[in-house]
Design goal:
Distance between the termini: 77 Å
Order of helices and strands: HEEEEEEEHEEEEEE
Structural class: mainly beta
Helix content: 10-25%
Number of domains: 1
Number of strands: 13
Number of helices: 2
Shape: flat
Largest sheet: 8 strands, mixed
Length: 224
Amino acid sequence: MKLGIATLLLALGALAGCNKTNASILIEETCAPPKPDTTSGGCVWDSGTCSATPLDTYWIDLSYGLKFFLGVQVDNQLTNNADATLGQVNTHDAFVDTYSVTYATAGAPAGTSVPAITAPPQIQNTVPAAGSAVIGINPIDGDALAALMTAAQAAGGASFRVIATVKLHGYLGDGSSFQSEERKYPIDVCWGCVAVPVCTGTKVLHSCPDPIQWPSNSSCDSST
């Protein structure tokens, strides 16, 4: 059977638009939180590679109603395919513009259902060909945060585990879309199980990102 040119072009276009898993774009490391700025209290994360936090389990006290934040190093293993002799520009830079999260729980109260995050806030990050970038994500946020807060409150002081499976989504320089390899984060959640550090005298608590989650970096510094 022969395909007309128009039909063939439509088929090729559909294939090009598929959001296929690209094994060359991957979440490589969880970044160790930086020491908070003692003047602004803000967090300045590395922009390329980062110092890793080799953890198997993360945790957060949901009684504070705050979303969970991670800085992650994303690697792009595609090579720079620019070729000046052929007039070809590099099309292997990866542009990450969103991410998705699905959940599984262990030991949660009966009836716990955690909706997937399929439309998180847009992020705009470029991961250069053969390079890396640090990207901020919230594996627990939105409707998932609300559902887990309800479950954690019902569990009293007991903690339970959430496995958050994260995928990054975006497009390459040639316009083709991709999703990254998935990365699983085991997060222990609880309600009212963490005491926020208290600073003495005129010292002020600064944290990156928050003292009610791990990984985090907190310190008491002189007030400015």
